[in-house]
Amino acid sequence: MSWSDTLKGVVGNLVGQAEQGALPDILKGVLGTEGLQAILGKLQDAGFGAQVSSWLDKNKNNLPISPEQIQSALGDEHVQQIAKSLGIPVDSILAGLASALPQVASEAGPAADPEKASPLPGPKSS
User: Under 8 Å CB-to-CB from 73, ≥6 apart: which residues?
Assistant: First the structure.
């Protein structure tokens, strides 16, 4: 299941109850570490690694990201699908992500680092 499917499924149920100011908490609850890693990975791949690194490093100030940068990294189709499924205008989705992602990633810290993600779980140590 992709991060956008997760976002559409869970946030779709919550968005009617939540206000825009609650978006960081909604993102944390919906995306979890795996979905957040996917979004941050897309941002890094699109050339926004400096922003992502600043969010994950507690010793750095969070660099901003614009709604346009998020749209370019995630792609128009994904953003439009999310907006349509939630019944929220694309501009609102992008503005919310631009303001909330730095905070959410910063609070998640190194656990959200896409470079540390492992595609398959390793064996458990005893």
Answer: 42, 43, 45, 46, 48
Say if pTM beats, i.e. exceeds, 0.85.
no
CA distance 103 to 68: 18
pLDDT, one tens digit per residue, over 16-66 is 444 455 565 656 554 555 577 888 888 999 999 999 999 998 888 999 999
CB-side exposure of 39: number of CA atoms within 13 Å? Answer: 30
Closest by alpha carbon to 94, among 112, 80, 113, 108? 80
- Cα-based distances in Å from 75 to 19, 54, 81: 25, 22, 10
